[in-house]
Specification:
The chain is an alpha+beta fold. It is built from ten helices and 70 strands. Helices cover 20% and strands 37% of the residues. The protein has a five-stranded mixed β-sheet, with no helix packed on it. A five-stranded mixed β-sheet has the order 67-68-66-69-70, with helices on both faces. Strands 1-28-27-26 form a four-stranded antiparallel β-sheet, with no helix packed on it.
Length: 1007
């Protein structure tokens, strides 16, 4: 099996008997002792911190059952399936079966083995064995009349170069290229008819065979027999495994033994009714165990670990395990393929006890306890790393949506919420007080809380900044303080309060307010966070980073190399890195570079971006809440996301950045679209004038889609040519000569790989490219040109005379036609202008309501469909309001239809005045209106409806009729995952409108 390939390679390094063997074993033990401290420093992370990727037939596999996995020296991974042999390069699956050329004898692949020369051995379900050499040549040993035509379950190679084969239920054989297959039928008294899928060859070239009824051994005398009875392994499922360090393991039931001096040593006895089906010892020395129906286990320094529940991994028996050259663990199961890889980030979600995955804020108190606020409540991390929900409830008995956290000087925790005020908790999490409207707290969101040096708590609300003193809430009356939504608060070292709003920055300095307008420099408006570093205050905004330093504002944004506009929080660590959260992942740079760009000393900033592939729970970090990212006292960085809480230890960063560069490999070569065999030592001859296309790949499976490439064609290029992520190069019409193509690959920000892909070829010249032929043709062309020149000169003189006469005759006609055409052109221009004005009027009438001037139903439906599709693609929020004028029929009946029309016009004016430029108000029919709110969450849309209702209430004497009062009922919804079409979204809003009317009108119902 795939997990034993490394052991097979080591087997060939053990000599027979004598002094040489003793010396080699002594050297081996010395190396192991020297390597022990290094191994201790590279302990694998807990199993829960691995990222898992899954592939099935939906992703390109021809079949979901993977019997074996192998990796050849150049880096390709190979999978044995029931529908062919599969090669994987990190991006694409290539299938070899009976239909391909070269083809296999059968599609059902049984086992794979990579030999010491790097060649790949392949067995199939009809007893055939195929060999693919390193130069791409294929050779087949078909099953013979005296060998079984059944599945070859496993293959191993001994030190003599014999390839041992395990036939399903039919015994064993060995194969050598010289003698072919030598078959050994199973004795009747041995359980080889119940053979399992495991066969290994130990250091003494003994062959061990697993069965469902005990362990079978072929000793060096050639006799097949049961394992020694004194081992006491019993007669159940028992099978061998050869580890990369050469150790022989025996798996018997729930017990793991290691063979030492031909004795069994019990190493692990696992609890529960486990049927182990695969085993792997990785580079850390940890043991990975595949089971029949309980997934994957690992025995490591963290104990016996299982994968977290709810991962939706391929089910069924784990058949094969393989550790690749980069340390990732590949698992072949009956239901598909999955891979476990170490990642830079670790993440916590609902599986770890969080109340919800949509996390808004994270905070570490002075006792090093970690608090996490989400849309589903408040959580506290326990000593075992999991989270437990705090018993915090609003007036409706539900957990509040937590937006902000802070700690007072007395140790109390202050919790800002969405719509439920501010909670003050004791250090143990018990409630001390809930500040609400009765205490003077304005309603709405509390997105930021900051505690000043004197211990006074300040909170940012939807109606400005408040100060909490004792049990009372005081609204600041300092002139110039903002009165709208507050998105960030931070006290600087001098005690000044920095206030972030959706319209720039205010700084409360004692009894006066300083206003800092970001818009003139890059267009910034919304401020999401502050962080003071030395004398500089760094500001996170919707237009990148701003720095306020010594009274001067500077910016590091999209134009200076930032990959995104909106950033939420800047957090420096203790190693010189700066971590920045955003909607499109976490960004990392360094403080020196940021300051150099802000000072104008460097034009652009270099940034590395991390997302789900690096272990983040979700690439969308959340902002406009606080704190949304922190550096804990242990030096780790934590960030909130839309899919959970993610963390990274900056000390691990260097190890991940120093991973070896991926080896480059050429995938295929085509000449004029036809593939050519390019592998092998011989130089390819390419006819001249052809189109040559070469595809290549960097064989890394960690960041395959981020790999960068460069090429150099000796004989044409003076140096390396950067290709970025482009995986192919094309040459057309290369001059005759000898060429060598070099391809190198690298990870983002890493060094170029030294393991280049190299291919040499020769472009042959055409007959006419020979120098003698070219000289003769040149002389002929020169003589022809002289004769042609003389002939053309005579022709030119004669035609010149004829042309002069024709010009004079045509000039008179052209002058008359010019006058006529000018008159026609003037008439055409006037007609075109009239048609354009009519077309513009018709277009406007088709999409505009004639009475109110708003968009009509047709114009609204078109805009809804467009914005609906855009929001689904981008993930931006979209809210829809459908409103209906209450008792409008009574207005018509009481005051006449003309008064009703005036009311409708005024309603349209009020709605239009309350809208942003990005919103779309429309009259969809009669007294029904709609309002489409782009990039607007449900809570923000509710505020729009509330503001609109206030405008209706404040409007006196509608249509000039004294005392006439007009109200509306509205239904409000936000685009959700279940809204597959715009019509479904509209229907939900319509139903919410019906509830608003049923509940008494003059209200908004949220659907």
């Amino acid at each position: 099996m795939g997990g034993q390939g490394a052991g097979r390679r080591l087997a060939g390094r053990h000599p027979g008997v004598g002094i040489g063997r003793v010396l080699r074993l002594g050297v081996l033990w010395l190396l192991l002792l020297l390597a022990a401290p290094l191994a201790a420093q590279t302990v694998a992370p807990p199993l829960r911190d691995y990222a898992i990727d899954v592939w099935t037939s939906r992703n390109g596999l021809p079949h979901n059952s993977l019997r074996d996995i192998a990796q050849t020296p150049e880096g390709h991974l190979w999978f044995a399936t029931w529908e062919g042999l599969v090669r994987y390069n990190g991006l694409d699956f290539t299938v070899f079966d009976r239909s391909t050329r070269p083809g296999l004898r059968d599609n059902g692949i049984g086992a794979l083995l990579v030999d010491r020369q790097g060649g790949l051995w392949i067995s199939d379900s009809r007893g055939n064995v195929t060999y693919r050499s390193t130069d791409g040549q294929w050779r087949v040993w078909e099953h013979q009349a005296d060998t079984p035509e059944v599945l070859i379950q496993s293959m191993q190679m001994d030190s003599q170069g014999r390839l041992w084969l395990l036939y399903e239920g039919k015994g064993i054989a060995y194969l050598t290229p010289e003698t072919g297959v030598v078959y050994q039928p199973p004795p009747a008294d041995l359980p080889l008819a119940m053979s399992f899928t495991k066969l290994v060859v130990d250091a003494q070239d003994r062959v061990w065979i697993g069965t469902l009824d005990g362990l079978v051994l072929r000793d060096n005398d050639g006799e097949l027999k049961r394992a020694p009875a004194e081992w006491g392994v019993g007669k159940g499922l028992t099978w061998p495994y050869r580890a990369p360090d050469g150790a022989l393991w025996i798996v018997a039931g729930e017990r793991l033994y290691r063979v030492e001096d031909d004795r069994l040593v019990l190493v692990h006895s696992l609890p529960g009714q486990l049927h182990m089906t695969a085993m792997l010892q990785d580079r850390h020395g940890d043991l990975w165990l595949g089971t029949e129906n309980q997934g994957l286990l690992r025995i490591s320094s963290h104990g016996l670990e299982r994968l977290p529940a709810g991962l939706n991994l391929p089910g069924g028996r784990v058949v094969s395990l393989r550790e690749d050259a980069e340390g990732s663990i590949w698992v072949g199961a009956n239901g598909g393929l999955y891979r476990l890889r170490e990642t830079l980030f670790s993440s916590y979600t609902e599986r770890d006890g969080l109340s919800g995955d949509y996390v808004r804020t994270v905070f570490e108190d002075r006792n090093r306890q970690l608090w996490v606020g989400s849309a589903s409540g408040l959580d506290l991390q326990t000593t075992d790393g999991t989270f437990r929900a705090m018993p915090l409830h609003n007036r409706g008995g539900k957990a509040p949506s937590v937006l902000s956290l802070a700690q007072g000087p007395d140790g109390d925790l202050w919790v800002g919420t969405f719509g439920d005020g501010v909670y003050r908790l004791r250090a143990d999490g018990s409630l001390r007080h809930n500040y609400g409207p009765g205490d003077g707290m304005p309603g709405g969101n509390i997105r930021a809380i900051s505690v000043d040096p004197a211990g006074v708590v300040w909170a940012g609300t939807q109606k400005g900044v408040v100060r909490i003193d004792g049990d009372r809430v005081h609204v600041s009356n300092v002139p110039g303080m903002p009165t709208g939504l507050i998105t960030a608060l931070e006290h600087d070292h001098q005690g000044n309060l920095w206030i972030g709003t959706i319209e720039g920055i205010r700084v409360l300095r004692g009894d006066h307010v300083q206003s800092i307008d970001l818009a003139p420099m890059g267009g910034g408006r919304s401020v999401f966070g502050f962080h003071q570093i030395g004398e500089a205050m760094w500001i996170s905004s919707d237009r990148g980073l701003y720095r306020w330093y010594k009274g001067r504002l500077s910016r590091v944004g999209l134009e200076q190399g930032m990959p995104v506009d909106a950033v939420f929080q800047l957090v420096p660590d203790r190693l010189g890195n700066v971590w920045i959260s955003s909607n499109r992942g976490v960004l990392r740079t360094d403080m020196a570079t940021l300051n150099a760009v802000a000072d104008g000393r460097t034009p652009r900033v270099t940034v590395e971006r991390y997302n789900e592939i690096d272990g983040m729970a979700n690439a969308q970090a959340n902002g406009s809440s606080g704190p949304s990212a922190i550096l804990r006292q242990d030096g780790t960085f934590w960030v909130v996301t839309a899919g959970g809480l993610s963390t990274v230890d900056p000390q691990r960063l260097q190890r991940f950045r120093e991973r070896p560069a991926p080896p480059a490999a050429i995938e295929n070569v085509q000449v004029d679209g036809a593939p050519v065999h390019w592998e092998g030592p011989e130089r390819n001859l390419i006819p001249g004038g052809r189109r040559l296309a070469v595809s290549f790949v960097g064989l890394s499976y960690l960041m395959s889609d981020r790999i960068r490439y460069r090429t150099r064609l000796e004989g044409l290029d003076a140096g390396w040519v950067e290709r970025g992520p482009q995986r192919s190069v094309e040459f057309v019409g290369l001059p005759p000569g000898d060429y060598t193509l070099h391809v190198a690959a690298s990870h983002p920000g890493g060094a170029w790989g030294q393991q280049e892909a190299v291919w040499s070829f020769t472009v042959e010249p055409f007959w006419w490219q020979r120098h003698s032929v070219q000289a003769f043709i040149g002389l002929l062309l020169l003589g022809a040109l002289v004769a042609l020149y003389r002939f053309l000169l005579q022709q030119y003189k004669a035609s010149n005379l004829r042309l002069a006469r024709r010009v004079d005759e045509a000039t008179f006609d052209l002058q008359a036609q010019t006058v006529h055409l000018q008159a026609l052109n003037l008439e055409k221009t006037e007609l075109a202008e009239r048609l354009a004005r009519q077309a513009e009027a018709f277009e406007r009438q088709a999409r505009e309501d004639a009475l109110t001037g708003l968009a009509n139903r047709r114009g609204f439906d078109e805009t809804l469909a467009r914005d609906f599709a855009r929001s689904q693609r981008s993930g931006h929020p979209l809210s829809l309001v459908v409103l209906d004028i209450d008792h409008f029929k009574d207005v018509n009946d009481t005051y006449s239809h003309s008064i009703g029309d005036l009311v409708l016009k005024e309603v349209a004016e009020v709605i239009d005045a309350a809208c942003r430029d990005s919103d779309l108000p429309a009259r969809t029919g009669g007294e029904e209106f709609a309002l489409l709110l782009n990039d607007t969450r449900l809570e923000e849309a509710a505020q729009v409806c509330a503001r609109l209702r206030g405008l209706f209430h404040d409007h006196p004497d509608w249509a000039g009729v004294k005392g006439l009062r007009v109200t509306f009922s509205a239904g409000l919804v936000e685009l959700a995952g279940d809204d597959r079409t715009p019509a479904l979204l509209y229907q939900r809003a319509d139903r919410a409108l019906y509830r608003a009317k049923s509940d008494g009108r003059d209200r908004t119902s949220i659907g």
